[in-house]
Structure formats: C-alpha cells, structure tokens
Amino acid sequence: MEDDKSKNNQNVDPEELSSEDRKLERAPSSVSEGDDSEGSNTIVDGIERRGVENTMEEYFLKYSMSVIIDRALPDVRDGLKPVNRRILYTMNKNGWKAPHATVKSARIVGDVMGKYHPHGDSSIYMAMVNLAQPWKMRYTLIEGQGNFGSMDGDEPAAYRYTEARMDKVGAELLTDIEKDTVDFRDNFDGTEQEPVVLPAALPNILLNGQMGIAVGMATNIPPHNLGELVDATVAQIDNPEIALDELMKYVKGPDFPTGAEVYGGAPMRQAYATGKGSVVIRAVTNIEERKNGRYNIVVTEVPYGMSKEGFIEKVRELVLSKKLDHIADARDESARGKIRIVVELKKDAFPKKILNQLYKMTGLQTAFHYNMLALVDGVQPRILGLKEILGEFIKHRQKVVRRRTEFELKKAKERAHILEGLKIALDNIDEVIKVIRSSYDDADKQLMSKFGLSEIQANAILQMQLRRLQGLERDKIEEELKQLHELIATLEAILADENEILRVIKEELIALKDKYGDKRRSKIINHEVGKFSEEELIPEEESVILLTSENYMKRVPQTDFRKQNRGGKGKRGMTTKEEDVIAQILTANSHDFLLFFTNQGRLFRMKAYEVPQASLAAKGTAAVNMLNMHPEEKITAIIKQGDAGANGYLFMATKKGTIKKSAIKDFFNVRSNGLIAIKLDEGDELKWVQETTGENDIVISTSAGQATRFNEKEVRAMGRAAMGVRGMRLRPKDEIVGMDVVTDPKQKLIVVSANGYGKATLVSNFPPHKRGGVGIKVAAVTEKTGPIVAVHTLDPLAKEVIMMSTKGQAIRVAMKEIPTLGRATQGVRIMKMSEGDSVASIGIVLPEEEQDKPA
C-alpha cells in the first residue's frame, strides 16, 4: 500500500528509471525470420511476435514508473503524493474548508474517486484519515470529526460515519491556485482538469514528512518544525551558497508530533547532507516514588509511530518470559490527549537499570532511518539533502509568485483599461448616451469610432444600464484607476527583478511562521546514543541535597523552596518515616562532586545529579540503593569536593570530640565500595567533615551553647587509617552539634536552636584557644529556645538560609532578616514551630555564580 512505512531504502539510478528507451534499446527490435529467440520481437505476415523477456521488461518498467510517479512518491515541491493532492484539491474546489461546516467523508471520497483517483474508496479514505491524525502529521492538513482512529492502531470508523473539512495549514498549500500559478492536466477520463502540483506556500515535504514504498525504492522523511523550516528557507534565500552547518543552526532536527527525545550527532548531519542517515528516538520518562516507597517508571512522550498498547503487551511478554524482573504491572493512564504510561516496579528494584532494559528491549527507543527520496520536476526520483530540498522549494515558489504576479498584472491592466474607457464615457456622457440611443445595431462601432475606444471598452459601456452610466462618480473611478496604476507599477517592478520575487517569498513565509509557528515538541540531543557521557545530558541547576537520620536522600531544585520572612511556618519539605528527621541540608550544583562520609568512618563519592531528584513532599531514596554501604552503616556528613584544591585537607570531627586532618589528595581515587577515612574508637562515630586549606581556624560547638575556636595547624596531617586527637572536652550531658571552618576573621556564625530561634554572631567574639578546651558561650540556652542544633560559619556572600524541621517543614529566609547579636544572647524567632516539632538542620544558600565553581 502506498502509505506503508518504508522498509526498503535501496536506491535506483534515476536516469535508468526515467527513460524507458534506455531499457528497450538493449534488446534488438527484430531478428531474422524464423528466429524464435525468447527475448526477441519479430514481424511475420504483419503479425508481431513478442518475446516474453522483452514484453515483461517493457511492461514492468511502465508499471514501475506508474507506481513511482502516480502513486507512491511525493513531489518535492508540495510534499504530496497524487492521492493527497487530489483530496485537498477536491475539498478546496468544493469549498469544504473553514468556516464551512464539515461534510461527510463518504462525499469527499466519492468526489475524489469519481473525478480524479480511480483506485478504490478504501485507499482514498485511509489517505484522508492520515492527513487528519495529529499523532502522524506534525501539522494536520485535514480537520476530522468523529472516530479517526488512535495512535494505538485502532481503525477509524467507516467513512459514512465521519466528517471532515480542510485544515488551515492544508488550505495554505492551495493558496492562489485559482490565479494560474500551476499547470493543470486532464484527469483519467479527460472530463476534468487537475493540478500537476499545488502552489504550496510552505515546504510541506519537510513540514509533515512522507513515507512510501515504490517499486525498487522507498521514501522516509521525518516531520519538522514550521518556524525552523521558515528560518532556514529565508537564510538560504539570503545566501544561496549557505553551508549545511549554517542551515542546521535553524533546522535543529526532526520534530515529531509525539515529541520524545531525538539523538542526532554525525548520522543526523549525514542525513541532511546526503539524504540518507538515521537518528535514535527515545521516550521521555520520569521515575516517580509511590507512597509505599516503591517506584514507577512513567512515560509521558513516546517515539514516533509507537503504539502504547503494543508497548504494554511487550512489557508483559518480557515479564512472563523472565527476560525482565522487578516489574509488577504496566498500564496506560493516558487521558485528554496527554500520554501517561505507568510501569510499576516491585520492591528493591533499581529504576534506572530497568529503564535501560526497557530502552533496549521495547519500542521506548527506536531508530528513524532517513531516505529523503522525492520526485524532482514531477518525474525524476532523486535522493535529496536538506539544502537541495529547500532549493527546489524556493525554485517552485519563484515560479508560483511569478505566475501569480503575471496573472494579477493582467487582471489589473484589464480593469484599468475598462476604467479608462468609463472615464472617457464620463467626460462625454451626453454624447455617449445619444450615440447609444440612436444606434441599435452598431452602437459599439459608433462608440469606438467617435471616442477612440477599444472593443472591450465599448462593450463594457454598453453592458451598463443607462441609469448607472449617468450615475457614475468621477472621484471613485479616478481613485480606483490611481490605485490600479500603483498596483501595476508594483507588479511590474516585481516581475522585472528576481530579488523582488524572493523578497515576496520571504515576507509570505515569515507571515505564515507568525500565524502557524509553534514550539518544538521533540528535544534534540546532538550526540549519538552510547557515544556521550550521562553527565552531558544532565542540565546544570542549583539544587538542595537533603539527608535524613534514617539515611534517605533526595535532590530538590533550589527554586522549590519558597522564600519567606523570618517567623513563618514554612512549607512541607519532606515526608519522613516516623521518628526520622532531617539530618543535613547541602546546596550544590547538579554537576558538583559530593563526598559522603559514614558513621563508621568510610567515604564514598558521586555526582550530585546521581542523587535522585524528587518533589519537596517525597520521602527520598534510601542511601543503600545508591552506595555500597554495610547494613548498619549510615551517612553522617556530605560535602562538596573541590573548593580547597588538590593541596587542601579534609578536617573531621566525631561525636565524642575527636578530630583529624588528612590531605585531600589521599581521597582522589574513591572506589565504588568506599575508602576508610578515619579509624574510630568503639562507640564513637564520624559526624562532621569539612574541606580546609591548612591555614584555617576551626570552630566546634555543643548543644549546651559552648564553642571553641583553634587553628588547624595544631593538628598534624594524618593518614587515612589514623584515629585522630582530642578536639574539645565535653561537660556532662553535653554533646557536639557542629564543626565548621573559619575562612575569614570577619566572618559570622549562624546559631540556631531547636525551637526555631537563631542569630548571627561575629567569629571575632571567639578568640583562638588551644584545642581540647571546653570553649566559651556561643548562645544563651533556655527552655524557650531549646538546645542548640546547628552552628555554621557564614560565607560573606551568603544570602539565604534554608531550615528544616523534624516533621519535614521547610523555610527559606534571607540572611538580612537574621540580626547580628552578642555571644550570650538567645536570638530571635526565625521559624515558628508546631507543637512537638523542632529544627533538625540548616543549609546555607550562596549566590548562583558562587555555586558554579568547577569541582
């Protein structure tokens, strides 16, 4: 069938296909009488005897050319096959387009079949249905009403039940067809005239693409974005020698009606250069967490031509055959034109791994093979590149605009000629009336002789009623004549200069872009699948990494935290398990390296984007699903790697006050199963880690409001397996709540208590002491404030702070709203706490440019 998807991309020599004589001249037309060779033609007694080989070759070639030209291949000028062209022409001729009401499809099919396309009603109807299906056509040419099928392969209703009319973009392909812009030819029985090609104001062959199978060849052209095609065409008009790479700055790649992601790279460029190549199309998917902690893979955009039901059946088949594990269900939740396919995963499933398996084994990832074969000048099949296709379209539009201008010029001159005659009649109205009344048989000759009128002018005057002739208004005639003379001058100027014709083409294209242009649906990724790193596909964005005490992690865009004034209650920031609280907040760029330290003194490393992104209300992903940790091991500290450079250090502190400094270069090669960062005493845990330069001061603080400051030079650098030294001596019932680095003596500390009170205080209020002391007061701890939960040094560029509560409330407050107070004060209310809730952790937000430092 002529609309079948291309399966055979073999090329055939166009010269060989366009000339029957070349085939026939190889065989002798006749041989000596009596030679009954199978491949020869002979004439005996006036009767021609034809060899089977010659006869089959001749008639198969005729059949092939008939299929190629009259059925299967599109014309490069209007991008239509003959059946499509005949459907649109019939609808235009009968006025079946907006604002006309839709008409029965059976009526359209009958008219097309009876007048132009005698190849069966079902082929015409299915061709018409294709033009109306929005999942096949990037810009539908026909507007259907009723059941026109579905993207899952459901058949449309019979043509007696459906209705249709021409869509707006379809009408643009026939604009000005009545102005002698294209050639017409006889239909199949010589009773009607049909257009050889449509005027086509848009490059429809690229706009909507085409698929078709001819004899020995096939075409497969993807759809594209209207705005991009217009921009590229205008650029080629301005510079006919434009390079392909310049054109591809406008035409990014195919734009499929179903969206999805298109992976291009070198094969796509080759396709636009030579007409043959390929791209990989991937579905757009998201990984969503369910309330029970399990995950769903959700598909929201599918590859061009993929059936949702077919995909679901394939998934079920793979599960039954044991080729896919950990899939509980697959279902289609699409509604109201929006695609949503849900693949439900079982417990302990790795969503990314299963998604990759789905890409490999199902239609979620497919290849589209370009074979941009089209008829040039209506007869010659050729494989064309992007620049050649646009060039052919521009040449076609030049002919159309020239013929239209000539038509309009002719009409304008004819009207001006008549008006000039009416003006002469008006100047001599009494005599003209007298001549008409006195001359019945030869009034036209008398007018021509007496006033020097042409036959056309005289007949125009005679065809008017006398009362109209007497009532002619000189001003109206002169004004219309003036406008016509201006129009004639404009049209003649266009015809006199090819650049003017090109200017008209550009203006009309830009107007159509403004009228019908829309946003790209398919995302173009200029890499081949498998030849780029995952990191290159991850957008850079400022994020917040959240870690709970039960080791659930997630990544949330910074913009999801709404800024509020201090004293607000915040918004829901994380769903946590019972007795689980937010342990740490870290702001980072999605491409930063993160170091994860565990309570057992081990270190892991991965990129921030590898922490699964989730919504504010989501619980997050268990760390054991991302890192090779022991069953009882928990992450206690996360830092960004890189700010201190290769000569920096990692400074660590434990919950019992032990500290340790190690060279950061010792931690460059982190294995997937982690590295030992510190050796711990029994019962102790690694809690805090910071990068230092080797010259920094260290501040350690406790829940009872004590803090000590000392220089890190007091601690020598130790190997990874060393235990460390005492950093601070604790009083009874007191515990360490924070360790931070002082990079500038003018810095401030932010101190936050459990009940939402906080303040900033100058680091200079804490003179350096020897390590191992009990420290001095950092804040007044009262029943109203509750114990201190966090003490952090503030970067001078810090603008905001994010606070999280044990019940998952979050607030983002500007630093300027937090007052700077003395050491012994309790601070002001920063976050209003609900009953039974308390502050769990805080994170400091830096300006975006500061967070963009390379890791």
TrEMBL record:
Chain segments annotated as coiled-coil in the UniProt record? 462-515
Q: Which PROSITE patterns does the record associate with it? A: TOPO_IIA (PS52040)
Q: Which Gene3D superfamilies match?
A: 3.30.1360.40, DNA gyrase/topoisomerase IV, subunit A, C-terminal, Topoisomerase II, domain 5, Topoisomerase, domain 3
Subunit structure of this entry?
Heterotetramer, composed of two GyrA and two GyrB chains. In the heterotetramer, GyrA contains the active site tyrosine that forms a transient covalent intermediate with DNA, while GyrB binds cofactors and catalyzes ATP hydrolysis.
Protein task = A type II topoisomerase that negatively supercoils closed circular double-stranded (ds) DNA in an ATP-dependent manner to modulate DNA topology and maintain chromosomes in an underwound state. Negative supercoiling favors strand separation, and DNA replication, transcription, recombination and repair, all of which involve strand separation. Also able to catalyze the interconversion of other topological isomers of dsDNA rings, including catenanes and knotted rings. Type II topoisomerases break and join 2 DNA strands simultaneously in an ATP-dependent manner.
NCBIfam families attached here? Answer: gyrA (TIGR01063), PRK05560.1 (NF004043), PRK05561.1 (NF004044)
Membership in a protein family = Belongs to the type II topoisomerase GyrA/ParC subunit family.
Return the protein name. DNA gyrase subunit A
Q: Can you name the source organism?
A: Candidatus Nanosyncoccus alces
